[in-house]
TrEMBL record:
Pathway: Cofactor biosynthesis; adenosylcobalamin biosynthesis; adenosylcobalamin from cob(II)yrinate a,c-diamide: step 7/7
Topology class, membrane: Multi-pass membrane protein
Organism of this sequence: Blastococcus tunisiensis
Name this polypeptide is given: Adenosylcobinamide-GDP ribazoletransferase
Organism phylogeny: Bacteria, Bacillati, Actinomycetota, Actinomycetes, Geodermatophilales
InterPro entries per record: CobS (IPR003805)
């Protein structure tokens, strides 16, 4: 395990300033992505709480989504849009990958972005209004990074032409990913103050998010032949959205 990984992960996945030497490598990006999610989730939850107290739950929800977009440079949202353009229309593998490598966003990407962001804001506002807390948001952001880390497991195929996919392939071991998931579960238990039912509900929401990301992964594997940077980002956004949606339903 690369112990410079947290800096490498922060360099690629956030706008946080890191030494230039750390930004030169991407091998540690995926193993440490859940840790980065913990920091991003905390920042987003803090912005949400302030917006809720100063104005309204809806404003808090918008601020949370905006902070995540800014702190990640919109990288995962861009990946979501590109993946939607590649997987949405009925086209062959080579054409789908070509579309995803283009810099513009097509109609499938635009519609997907709008719907996902609206769903995130609506669910977060409902959670705040009903429960007064933003813990599900924090859980959702970490879950999104767990879904991204899953793409670094050994044996995960890489889409043709993906330099990032080749670099991070096999960098996440199953025991490491399991440890990250168990640590996240333990943090949920601590954050809920020992309320077992609430902790179990939040953990279940995280599982729902991971399952949604897994469906996207399987779709990408069939259509694209594997994952690339766009698919990794899209899996993170889908897992985050599905987690907050599940939380809005059950909490």
């Amino acid at each position: 395990m690369r112990w410079t990984g947290p800096l490498e992960s922060a360099a690629l996945l956030t706008v946080f300033p890191v030494p230039a030497r750390a930004a030169a490598s991407t091998r540690g990006v995926l193993p440490w992505a859940p840790l980065i999610g913990l920091a991003l989730g905390g920042a987003a939850a803090g912005a949400a709480v302030l917006g809720d107290r100063w104005v309204s739950p809806t404003v808090g929800a918008v601020l949370a989504v905006a902070v995540l977009a800014v702190l990640t440079r919109g990288l995962h949202l861009d990946g979501l849009a590109d993946t939607a353009d590649g997987l949405g229309p009925l086209r062959g593998r080579e054409r789908a990958l070509q579309v995803m490598r283009q810099g513009d966003v097509g109609p499938f990407g635009v519609v997907t972005l709008v719907l996902v962001l609206l769903l995130q804001v609506a669910c977060l506002a409902a959670l705040a209004a009903a429960d007064g807390g933003w813990l599900p948001l924090w859980v959702a952001v970490v879950t999104g990074r767990l879904a991204m880390a899953r793409t670094g497991l050994p044996g995960v195929p890489v889409a043709e032409g993906s330099s990032l996919g080749r670099t991070v392939a096999g960098t996440v071991s199953p025991p490491w990913l399991t440890g990250c998931a168990l640590t996240a579960a333990a943090l949920i238990a601590v954050a809920t103050g020992g309320e077992l039912l609430r902790a179990a509900q939040l953990a279940g929401c995280a599982v729902a998010g991971l399952l949604a990301a897994e469906l996207l992964f399987r779709r990408a594997r069939r259509r694209l032949g594997g994952v690339n940077g766009d698919v990794m980002g899209a899996m993170g956004e889908i897992a985050t959205t599905a987690t907050v949606l599940a939380a809005a339903v059950v909490l």
